[in-house]
Amino acid sequence: MAFTLFFVLFTYHRRMKNSHEVEKLVKKYRKYFENSEFSAFPFFLHLKAMAYKMNNEEEKLLDALKTLYQLVQESDSLSTVGDNSGIFHNFAETVAEILELGITEEKISNKLQKEISKETLVQRAREKLEIALRKHPTYAKFYITLGRLYLVEGKYNEAIKAIQKGISLEDSSEKDYALRISEYNMYLLNAKIGLSLQKQTKNIKREIEKQKESLQKIVEEERIKNIEILSVFTALIGILLASVTFSISMKSSIEAGKTILIMGGTLLIFVLSSFFTLTPSYSKVPLPFRYMLAFIIAIILILLGLAIP
Description:
- There is one protein chain.
- By secondary structure, the chain is mostly helical.
- It has 2 domains: 2-202, Alpha Horseshoe (Serine Threonine Protein Phosphatase 5, Tetratricopeptide repeat); 216-307.
- It contains 14 helices and no strands.
- Helix 10 (140-153) runs parallel beside helix 12 (177-248).
- The termini are far apart.
């Protein structure tokens, strides 16, 4: 009789979000919990975990997770638990709440006394929730919790679909309908914001990659251009040294000067033309004018060389 009364009052105040009344109720019936008088009832650990969660404290949430995790671990061997969709949903909802608060894997593992990743925990919660959904495919709250699990995983499209499904199934005749829809819409808004940010982040990353590739291409082009310019000047120096050596070997200084002028003019056409072609953006002087100027100077040098008797 005591358990039945506790269960009815607990369920009512929990659904109406009366956390203060739940706290008073738990304190009033504390002796039953402490003496494990309710332990013969399958719902004992389930309600105990719910009582922990109503406190909205990190440590209490972890206590609730530990209680429910142990309970679902035994679900395959205990028929009274294995067929209870409410317990499975309570476990999944607790996992969602813990991850929404950003409680670390280390704290979760310490509480459960075993190493467990967030991914594994979410997968386990979703497996149990899917069992509950197969038994109650029209129960709105189950879809909302499924959406919350998708939300903490960053699967925003899936989260939006699940939450919208839950909203569509909610019974508007229920007294707490407005409270529920308000809460569901908050999760839906978070999912839509997350999806928008995810798309923006992808676009930004894509643009950064494009700019990176463009910059790398420019750097590579400039590197090749610099190598070509260096090659031209290296060739010029080599030819000049060879010309000087050749001129020195001549007996007549006039012949040497004539040779230098003719070779210099010829080289000037080749070198400056190559230089201007490789560096079109390094000067404000139009490219055709630069070609013409180089050609005129070169012709003058060649003519001077030829004019020497």
